Amino acid sequence: MRRVVGRLHTGARGRTVVAVTGVALAVALLVVVTSLSAGLAGGATVQSEDIDYWIVPDESGAGSVPLNAEGAQLSEVHQISAQLRADPRIDYATPVAIAPIQLRHPTTNDRMYVLALGAIPESERHVAGFNTTPLVGTYSDQANGTYAGSWTGQVVISPAVAAELNVTPTDDIELSGSTRRGTVTHVSDTNLNTGVGEVPAVVMPLAELQSITGQTESDTADQILVSTTDPTVRPLLTDIYPGTSVVSRTGLTGAATSTTSLPLAMALAATLVAGGIGVAFVATMMGLELTASRQELAILGAIGFSARVRILLVSIETVTIAVLGGLLGIGIGSGGVAGLNLVIAEFVGVTTLATLTPGIILYALAAAVAVGVLAVPYPLYLATQTNVLAALSR
User: Where are the extended beta strands (E) located within the chain?
Assistant: First the structure.
């Protein structure tokens, strides 16, 4: 350690700094990528603001959430969602029914099929990207299971629906399969994106969609959406319905627990890259240093240090430089993880994606030691080729 620190005050400072910096940057890369991999593999992103969970039947599969209108359904959804909303940890809960329906303009007779989403509206809440605020009012059609309450007919439509039927807010539209009429209360800014393209869609009060699609008898819906900032509610959501799965919003964008080998592949790739860069820097710089300071090794030999001791000294110096670079790299990598999370929070809305744990820090430090060990052979070769008499005679 003294020899390494001493070099920082001599002409060898540049080579030592380059070697330490090279290892530091490699280890920093390893820390950032491994932290990101750990976050992807461990589902740490459920701590993001305004978490959305979907409770879906097992048969429907997570891959089609949140737009799955076929397969098994959930029953008694108004009662269950009321229980969820009573939990102080939950900000909002609503069943979501999804069904294709036909709309008809009462004057022009223009018709089109749309994907209808039924939800319990609440101010400043969104369902599949649609703001339900324009639907907030008297939600009475369900009427405690009788479905005898007043009909509002309120619908929020996508731009594609407005353009196709040439309707604007306050216009009436007829709902197929029903004698009821709807009233356009708002035109959304965007169409519904299903993952395979945009589709025309409308959002309306859940009970009213149930009424026109025959889902009132068992009070059914396709899924239940839960909004919360407390990840401890997940066990409650898992147990509230038998035969269901709980999927997080972050999981839908690929940021929840991963069942693929991508996170592992990322971590392994980062290890190989960091190792290669680190070994190259340390071996090259130590080789240059030994070439420039052969007289020092020769003097050590002349005063009685055996070849074994000189080799041990070179090995320790090499590993020490790698460890110093590793410690610096862990610091840089920690800052990189924090910066990465800030960027992701700004552009994706997930506040904690990359997760830096003590295990990752130890892993990075072990990687730095491994870099030093792997870089030892080349400096050792140069050290063993040093001729004491020839070096002293220079």
Answer: 51-57, 90-104, 111-119, 126-127, 130-131, 154-157, 172-175, 181-187, 192-193, 198-199, 201-205, 223-228, 244-248
Residues 296 and 184 in one domain: no
Among 328, 393, 336, 338, smallest CA distance to 364 is for: 328
Query: Which string of DSSP letters, residue by residue, matches 357-377?
Result: -HHHHHHHHHHHHHHHHHHSH
Q: Identify whether 66 is preceded by a cis peptide bond (ω within 30 of 0).
A: yes
Domain holding 196, by residue range, is: 45-252
Beta bridge partners of 117: 98, 203
Per residue in 164-188, pLDDT (tens digit) is: 899 999 999 998 766 778 889 999 8
Which H/E stretch holds residue 344?
helix 307-347
How far, rounded to the nearest angstrom, does the alpha carbon of residue 292 sit from its chain's CA centroid? 49
**151/207 Cα distance (integer angstroms):** 9
93 strand-pairing partners: 226
Q: Check whether residue 113 and residue 239 sit in a common domain.
A: yes
Query: Are the CB atoms for 188 and 177 separated by under 8 Å?
Result: no
pTM above 0.85, yes or no: no
Hey, what are 83's tokens? 């229980």
pLDDT one-digit tens code per residue, 238-280: 888 888 888 876 544 433 334 445 667 777 787 788 778 878 8
Asked if 87 and 156 sit in the same domain, the reply is yes
Place of tokens 């976050």: 39
d(CA 300, CA 302): 5
What is the C-alpha to C-alpha distance for residues 98 and 81, in angstroms, rounded to an integer? 17
Spatial neighbors of 315 by CB under 8 A, at least 6 apart, are 376, 379, 380
